[in-house]
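Open question from group meeting: does this chain pack into something compact, or does most of it stay loose? Before anyone orders reagents, we agreed to write out a predicted structure and look at it together. Recording both the input and the output here so the notebook holds the full record.
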Amino acid sequence: PNGGLAVNEDGVVIDPTEPGLFPDEWKEIFENAQPVPVNIIARTIAQKLGLAPNYQVIKDRLAKIEELKAILAQEEPPDPPPNIEVDDDGVPIVPLSQPLITRTKGFVLAGGPESAELFTELKNNYGMVLE
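C-alpha cells returned:
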C-alpha cells in the first residue's frame, strides 16, 4: 500500500534517509531488550551525516566484483578475458558507479566509534574516513 516503504504506528511513511530505526528493527531491539546492532548504529550515523547513499554505491561495486569473479572462475585456463581487468591478486578491478559523498565540514563522533567493528562498518559500508 505504501510502495514498500516503512511506516510508523500512525501510518506515516518513514523517510529511509532520516536517522532512526525501521519498525521491524524497533520491535526486535526494544521488545526483546536487545542491544542495537553495529550495522544499525553505523547506518544511523551515516544517515545523520548525509552519507547513507554511499552504502548502495559500495554494495553495487562489491556485487559486480563477485559477478566478475564467478566469470573468471569459469575461464579455462584461469586467465582473465581481455575485457576484465584484475589486480595483482586476481581480483577484478571495478570502479565505483559514482563518487562517494564526502563531508566538506568536520564532525565529531562523541564517544565513538566505540568499537573496531563500528569503525570498520563505517569505513567499509559508507566510505567514512575517520581520523
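Observations to bring back to the group:
The chain has a mean pLDDT of 82.
The longest helix spans residues 54-74.
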